[in-house]
Amino acid sequence: MLILTCPNCGLAVEETELSPGGEAHLERFGPTSSDDAFEEYLFLRDNVKGVHFERWRHAYGCGKWFLAARDTATLQVFGTYSAQTKAPPPDILAAIKKGKNT
Amino acid sequence: MRRFSAFAIAREALRNHEGWGRTWAKRPPKARYDVIIVGAGGHGLATAYYLGKNFGITNVAILEKGWLGGGNTGRNTTIIRSNYLQDPSAAIYEKARSLYEGLSQDLNYNVMFSPRGVIMLAQTHHEVRGYKRTAHANSLQGVTTEWIEPKRVKELCPIMNIDGPRYPVLGGLWQARGGTARHDAVAWGYARACTDMGMDILQKCEVTGIARDGGKVTGVQTTQGDIACDKLGVVVAGHSGVLAQMAGFRLPLESVALQALVSEPVKPCMDVVVMANTVHGYMSQSDKGEMVIGGGTDGYNNYTQRGSFHHIEETLRALVETFPMISRLKMLRQWGGIVDVTGDRSPILSKTPVDGMYVNCGWGTGGFKAIPGSGWGMAELIAKGHSPLTEAFGMERFREGRFIDESVAAGVAH
Description:
The structure holds two protein chains of two kinds.
Chain A: E1 3-5, E2 12-14, E3 19-23, H1 35-42, E4 51-57, E5 65-71, E6 77-82, H2 90-98
Antiparallel strand pairs in A: 1-2, 3-4, 4-5, 5-6
Chain B: H1 6-13, E1 32-38, H2 42-55, E2 60-63, E3 79-80, H3 87-107, E4 118-122, H4 125-141, E5 146-148, H5 150-156, E6 171-175, E7 179-180, H6 183-196, E8 200-202, E9 207-213, E10 216-222, E11 225-234, H7 240-246, E12 253-265, E13 273-276, E14 281-285, E15 290-301, H8 309-322, E16 331-342, E17 348-351, E18 357-361, H9 371-384, H10 397-400
Helix pairs in contact in B: 2-6, 2-9, 3-9
């Protein structure tokens, strides 16, 4: 069972309490953007085998969104962080570099 | 290759079965091939087979990083059906189903195709309307299916409880000519036929890079050395995104885990395949007597070939109401496979931004049933550059908004 710590309410919760929300840090494009940008935002994904930055929602808890860094090949979680970020914060990147959880 | 026949069995019976030989040959890689197929699963092997059979292209290698048929080909629940809503889907799945009917004869290898019939249960009024619509679409497409009432469902599958308070059976979409086949035998049969045409099957040969020259593919780097090719077909299901990344482009795919499980073997009690999409579960009985049960996918990206335990719990909890007898069964084995899911839940059979490189992926949770049709279309696409079977499945459809929107949109129950 995947266990993630929600950075909004601080609880470490099992995946049954969470809803996955796909790749994080996507740049959003609307109808006035180019076809390339719109396709990229809506459909194209890195789908990495390795460390994946992804969105989660604490659906059966505080209800808020957050982000997580998780290895899709090992299911190791390197930490969770606020959804109001454009890029992974330094402590998460450091944890990934060290190969240990924050 | 020694042909299998009644005469061959008699001959081998008289000499301790010493003359059967290997099913496929083990040869070192050549320096160059006309076509390299990455992925020796059902779809990759079928692609190679029809390249040879339909287009006479036999200087072909099939590369496999693990063992032949060890990915999703050996991990699915072996269901074959073609009762899809959209025309392009019905065309390719029905082509596959009809090829399955003659596949044992064609390959001279018993794939144990068993057209026992598939019922897709309607357990909500929404599903009743949806399946009636599909039945009408299928009759226009020349795919034989029919809407059946609950009484007929009960006749076809007496172990089912159709009056459940939570999931009552309101009818079903019945495809009498759907069924199951032996999944490993499909891979082994195609492999044997490929090797017989002189193709090389290279196991434990992982592709680590894709060589290009001026936007055109020239070969692959592998754990067994560099191999040159004119054309490259990537047929690797869950790892399609990884291979695309090697070639410098992205695909509209996400890889997730899908699980299945089997019970202890019991006496024959169910001679049809039943799919219950509302509860994300489906079940059939194998020739060994095991109840083969498939569930839903996990919602998050995963390459580990194992899934979440709570999904199995949810699947079984719901199936127990429809099939009360399984509450007394022990479950023997559980496993997972990595399925590559697209935005419209339809596959991608397509040219790519790299000249000479083709992809066949995105079959998601329902690839096994499509193997012969997918191989047929993909072979034509590689040999001729276009195929009527694959035309609608190009990767540019997402950009252009031409989705093949199958209402298996929950991505489950194949």
